[in-house]
Amino acid sequence: METPHQGTALFHLPGLFEFYDLYAAFLPLYRAHREYFYDWCAIGSIYGAPSDCLWAGGRVEYSDRTPREVLALTREYGISARLTLSNSLLRPEHLTDPDCNALCRLFQEQNDPQNGAIVHAELLTQYLKKNYPSLYLVSSTTKVLTDFNDLQRELARPEFRYVVPDFRLNRAFDQLAALPQSQKDKVEFLCNECCWFGCTERRACYEAVSRKNLGLPGPEHYCSAPG
Description:
Layout: E1 9-13, H1 20-32, E2 41-48, H2 67-76, E3 80-85, H3 98-109, E4 116-119, H4 122-131, E5 136-139, H5 148-155, E6 160-163, H6 173-177, H7 181-184, H8 202-214
Parallel strand pairs: 1-2, 2-3, 3-4, 4-5, 5-6
């Protein structure tokens, strides 16, 4: 795909594994008929994780597609693939998981275009930085950064190429405008959020998904937000 021009809005699409069949049909159309699409937007990445991925979080994906199949598709169309390794409840013993390490090794080796990982747990951030340095890192929205000072501290961390705050900071226009350009370039926004704006349960919801991926006991989370 073409290199996006300055001023292009980059969209990061979900379901890297789960929606493989959709992207296998959509991406040829996107490449062959760019006139069907706005010229001010492009695909920045497609993100997700395979079924039963211990390090995954945010959502549980179901797919029978292999990592090699997924990478073959994204590489064919020049799109960065991001692994959603945003489990918030990881412990040191989880870092030795052979499947997750093989997954990261594959995504690092087939790194043209460069692939990345969306992370939450600090110990995984440091582990990936040390063991898979060719993967760029994205600070996950599952951290629920709703305080702008917390966002600024996250943006100042050099290990993260991008930071995704909680969607409630999307309209902090004056504070976002006052950021230095180097930090503005690192902010990515969660769009089309289904959650109620005033929801106070987002962290609990994400932790429930993390427990499920780890096979840990715990209560199901039932959102009580209006609607």
